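Agenda item 2: arabino-flavin-adenine dinucleotide complex prediction
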Amino acid sequence: MTDTRVAIIGAGPAGMLLSHLLDRAGIDNVVLEQQSRSYVLGRIRAGVLESGTVETLREAGLGNRMDAEGHVHDTINIAWRGEDVLSVNTFELLGKTMMAYGQTRIQEDLYTAADERGARVVFQAQDVQLHDIASDHPSVTFDTGAGSERLSCEFIAGCDGFHGVSRTHIPDHVRTDYDKVYPFGWLGILSETPPLPILLYANHERGFALCSMRNPMLSRYYVQAPLTDRIEDWSDDRFWDELLTRLPESQSSRIVTGPSIEKSLAPLRSHVSEPMRWGNLFLAGDAAHIVPPTGAKGLNLAVADVRYLSQALIAHYAGDGTGLEDYSATALRRVWGAVRFSWWMTTLLHRFPDQTAFDQRAQEQELSYVASSAHAQAALAEQYVGLPYS
Ligand code: FAS
Ligand code: PHB
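Presented output:
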């Protein structure tokens, strides 16, 4: 007998959604989180949900607040040259929409559901170590301040993000890491102001900008910034001036500015770690992959991984192990699709330090082509709104 069937490392969206789905299937699990609950809830991250993520949350009984407070987007808009705006209506093209609903809210909903079902979540679990992963008796040790504890289990789900420990337990001779670091970051703010009603990306010779939202009185904006910048280099006035400069006047005239209530500077990178399984360890979410937020894929990929992994574990305990055997290959097919799309969006919309006037014109021409081609718009739409789960 083991202490639990699945030990889940990390109580972010991947770990908590996996715990939720396993508990609904009667598969015992324990979640180990190194931070406090309030620390995890204090993170400001993703904002746009693919249609598949929305359906996954609804099917799991986690959609009520999202449907009440979220904002449905049926169109993705891209501005360039300070004048043109390309609008791709995913509902008209595919019958699918996106949802603006912050990751912070999803985290709150997951924790509320965990409380309601009496889930076993250990916060502030320090020095988490994975043992005997390739054996039939894996275990996890950790310290809660009252001494070291050991959790015996049948499977370990590494949902501990890019800086977690799970990925490092896959031997170097087994693991292949793919990395691309972009030479800029995103400066993001939250302001308690009415947002633009549309989701708007902008390519500008001064750099990228993005207008998003969290609710009718909470706006989320980003501008591309050099990696050498610090948050203190960006006063609110400087941020608003730069954002408005990078938007076409038809849109900048609609922006309501105000004091920022949160300001962050995030570097952009792509990372994929293969395989996403080693022995009885399965990686899900940022523990296995990172994408630049340009394509709004990070959180959505984490949900897709968890959807595949939970279904595979449920099938395993029903006597069919093929899902677990296929998990890594299945998840990585979607991961690489999202990584490539996020790379394409990032390369198309940002100003690179060594970029020439030719490069800027080539970016603008590609945007003009997408604006002129229903086929190109359909390709953008199906990738942005989310491809079907295989
Ligand atoms: P997470 O990193 O969210 O969660 C991992 C959890 O594991 C954390 O709570 C961590 O404390 C815990 N952990 C780490 N090491 C541990 C250990 N050794 N032991 C126990 N627990 C451990 N995505 C988008 O789609 N759009 C965005 O705009 C966007 N913005 C982002 C901004 C920032 C600054 C960052 C970092 C990410 C952003 N992302 C965005 C991506 C983000 O949303 C992730 O895709 C999402 O959080 C992935 O969820 P998890 O895989 O659960 O990883
Ligand atoms: C956000 O709302 O935070 C957001 C939206 C779209 C992105 C990235 C972030 O591509």
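Discussion summary: The domain at 6-50+101-178+269-344 is CATH 3.50.50.60 (FAD/NAD(P)-binding domain).
Owner for follow-up: CH.
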